[in-house]
Each structure stands twice: as structure tokens, then as C-alpha cells.
What we know:
Blueprint: E1 4-5, E2 9-11, E3 17-19, E4 27-28, E5 39-42, E6 45-48, E7 53-54, E8 57-61, E9 75-79, H1 94-97, E10 107-108, H2 111-120, E11 125-128, H3 137-149, E12 153-158, H4 164-170, E13 176-180, H5 186-193, H6 198-210, E14 214-221, H7 229-243, E15 249-253, H8 268-281, E16 286-289, H9 294-297, E17 299-300, E18 307-312, E19 315-319, E20 350-352
Parallel strand pairs: 9-11, 11-12, 12-13, 13-14, 14-15, 15-16
Antiparallel strand pairs: 1-6, 2-3, 3-4, 5-6, 7-10, 8-9, 8-20, 17-18, 18-19
Amino acid sequence: MSDYPARYWHQLDSGKIQCDLCPRNCKLKEDQRGICFVRKREGDHMVLTTYGRSSGFCVDPVEKKPLNHFYPGTPVLSFGTAGCNLCCKFCQNWDISKSKDIDRLTDQASPEDIAFAAQREGCTSIAVTYNDPVIFLEYVKDVAEACHRRGIKVIAVSAGYINPEPRVEFYSFVDAVNIDLKGFTEKFYKTLASAHLEPVLDTLRYIRHETDVWLEITTLLIPDENDGPEEVTRLSEWVARELGPETPLHFSAFHPDYKMMDKPPTPLKTLIRARNIAMEVGLKYVYTGNVHYTPGDTTFCAHCGETLIIRDWYNINGYYLTPKGACPSCGQKAVGCYEAEPGNWGAHRKPIQIGTFW
Length: 358
């Protein structure tokens, strides 16, 4: 199955159909697709062309999403489809998110198949990732409902570029999310992502203040684009002020890819500087990603500074939280979602095939 009735659109007086899912508000003629490429006009309605189709399934650690405060050490069944509603020149998954070859999506699975596979593999959660899940909202919703029936959590990895009405529905069936805050200037979003900053900030405020969804944020630091101390300071201050100082923030290293092959990889010292700035501003949980730097992987108590979780890449080498998720020294409860014992999945990946063909 592929073409599936899509939601969030309306007919215009001009005869075109407007997609209302994200702030792009694409206006479509017959057989035309939106910028995301997967939402298409067929006749007098709109369809999702990737329902039930995936670019692949893999079990990997929850820390890879990255989520450091959501059931640490547990395995997650991850999958995505194709397309994206942003046009990032630095996309690290461009072969999937920028793909316009729907036929490459050879892995097919119903929502129940995915939920069953996650349970069979012992996964605590599933994650919709690799490309932005908001563009296949209808599929995510059905998968989430099937997973929740089996007691499996749902994680979304998203850029947060979604309109207010569908946003309410999308985050009603998500348990945890990592939002990719790509930079902190309108210029950055406009020139490097062909998008706008404010809708993403609105999504972050909505998740934090109007839902129970667990939230972490990632910013990919690109040399000479969004890695300057002033921008990092403004971003960190906004997170502390608008979302709270205990909101986890991950600074991740860029590597040359897609349309930015001329840029060098992000130096470790840049990530360490950004982490230090964010902590000086008052953020309590600041991490570094895509680099080997143990202090930037480790979780410390926000109250007394005691070491709580020692990580080496995606491996947990020390876990000192009490069974109730509190610091053993001061008794302060760590923010997030924890079980009495951490998972032991480790750093490995396990590609799997679900193998349903409709």
C-alpha cells in the first residue's frame, strides 16, 4: 500500500489545493507534489504516497536519537520513509530525506507489523526518524496507536516544522521527541534550510508547555555558519528562559555532506566551547554528539553535580541513579523517564526486515 488519504488540506478558489500540514502551505495543481515530495494532489483530494513504506528498519540505542533522559540504554526500532519538508544544504541523511525515488522504499510494513516487530526484538520504543516524520503524519499516527496497544513508546526525531492544528494531533501520540533546532537566526534558516525560525520556536514552546511529551533538543554546529559564541549564547539563553534550564541540549558535530562539501568537520574544541557557554548560561544538561568526548556524554546531577550516568559514545559505563531515578548523593530526582535499571543494548545496530508486502 502506498497512496493513502492525507489530512490537513483545503480547496482554494483558484482550483488549487493547499496543503496545511506545515508552514510551507504548498498550493498544488493536479498530480503535483508538495516540496516534501510525498504529499500529492490526486483529483480533488490529497494523498500520502509513502504510507506503509520504509527506507529500512534498524534496532539501535535510544541515545542515538539522541535522547539521554528517556529510558537510557534501551533498544529502539527506528525507521523512516522518504522526503522532507525542509531543504537543508547540510543534510546528513540527504540520500533518504532528499530522495524523490519512491520506488526505493522496498521495505513495507503495516502499523501492526511494526509494533509486533518492536515487541519481538525487545524494544522499549520505536522511533520515526531518518527523514522528518511530520510529513507522514497519518502513518505515524497508526503506528503509534498499534505500538501503544503493546506498551511500546513512540519517539519522533523532527525539525518541528509543522502548523499549529496538525501539531496538536501529532504530539498527542508521541511520548518523546528530539527537535533539531538548526540555528538561531532567521538568516540561517532562510539561506541554508529554505525555511523560517519562528515556527520551530513555536513548536518547542508548545511541546514544553502544553504537552507531556519528553523533549530534548539538538543543534548541529556548522563551522562559520551557526557556531559563533554569540549565537550559541542567544540559543542557550532562549532555551533556559522559554523551555527551562533542565531541558537537555545536544551540540552535534557536522561532517561535510550533500551541498556543503566545502565545509570542514566541526572541531571538538567548538563543541566543548558551546557546551561550556550553555552551562554558564544556566542549562543543566548539555551534551556533545558525533565526537568522542566522555564529559559531553555524561549526565551530572543538576543539583549537586554528582555523576549520574557515564557514557562512552552509546555505551553506558556507569549508572548511579537510584531505582526511583534520583541522585544517590543529594536525592534530587533527575528529569526524564527511567526504569529501576538501565537497558543494556549498548552501541550496536541491528538491521531487521519486517517483510510484509501488501
